[in-house]
Amino acid sequence: MNPLVLPVGLLLGSAVVIYLACEVFVNGVEWVGRKFVVGQQATGSILAAFGTALPESVVTFVAVVFGATAAQKSIGIGAALGGPLVLSTIAYATVGVVLILCRRQLPKTAAIRADFRGLSRDQGWFLAIFAAKIALGVVAFAWKPWLGALFLAAYGAYFWKEMRGGDEAEDHELEPLKILPRLATPPTWAAVLQTVVALAVIFAASRLFVLQLDALGPALGIRPQLLALLLSPIATELPETLNAIIWVRQGKHRLALANISGAMMIQATVPTAFGLFFTPWILDRSLLVGAGVTALAVAAMFVAFRRGFISRAFLAAMAGFYGLFAVIVVAFRLG
Question: Secondary structure of the chain in the HEC alphabet?
Fold first, then answer.
């Protein structure tokens, strides 16, 4: 039997488990938000984003904390860079493609324009934080690990801002709680229980995912960081993609865009903090190329949100930045 069959099977299986568990987590955490009267904006940018960005963050955490080899720790660094790359390109493009397929336009209302201004601020803060994390990846000094606390503090400030943003809770429809599907309004304890159990499953599946990436890298002749940069985010960012499809089809553009923006803020800070705490945080050429493409994509979104000319075609075109990254990697053989 081909020696790659087992690790590939386990890799795909663990990715499926991560996705399903994260879907359960998001369902639970949205009900938790409803129980604690969290507004729709914060539900998308904080609660749902935390759930959908969780797999990538856990992959980084497991790789850098529990990784026994330098290759395993490199996977964590790659995952920390891959998440923002996929979110700023494929996730936004998914929103545009679904809008086109559903023949929907983004509403041109005062509320949407206000949302765009808020999202432009998020993109601006992301660029500043992202520039700092990349700059730290090209220098080495003894007290670098301590700077991880600043990235956690940056996300704490974003969390505080979103939760105090003045967005009143909206009575948008939620799917029934998955463990009590017959109840229209489940009890708070059930929502919390479902959320915690799903979190535990995501953690276990993510550790298995990291182990299989570590095994596949040498077999395929691909460096672990690049493998994590290309494959890990595509699998673990599936929840953002699914949420975008569901919410756009339901006309909930606000939730879809806030979810992606919030997940990007998590990916810019929390995984980076883990990487700084537990690895030297030195980026190779492929990661620097990925970071450069990510910065270009986010800069484009910043300008578009700032000026309010977001359209479904523009969003769909964001996939071109990911294509650019793939072309550069292949053309210059960075893998």
Answer: CCCCHHHHHHHHHHHHHHHHHHHHHHHHHHHHHHHCCCCHHHHHHHHHHHHHHHHHHHHHHHHHHHCCCHHHHHHHHHHHHHHHHHHHHHHHHHHHHHHHHCCCCCCCCHHHHHHHHHHHHHHHHHHHHHHHHHHHCCCCCCCHHHHHHHHHHHHHHHHHHHHCCCCCCCCCCCCCCCCCCCCCCCCHHHHHHHHHHHHHHHHHHHHHHHHHHHHHHHHHCCCHHHHHHHHHHHHHCHHHHHHHHHHHHCCCHHHHHHHHHHHHHHHHHHHHHHHHHHCCCCCCHHHHHHHHHHHHHHHHHHHHHHHCCCCHHHHHHCHHHHHHHHHHHHHCCCC
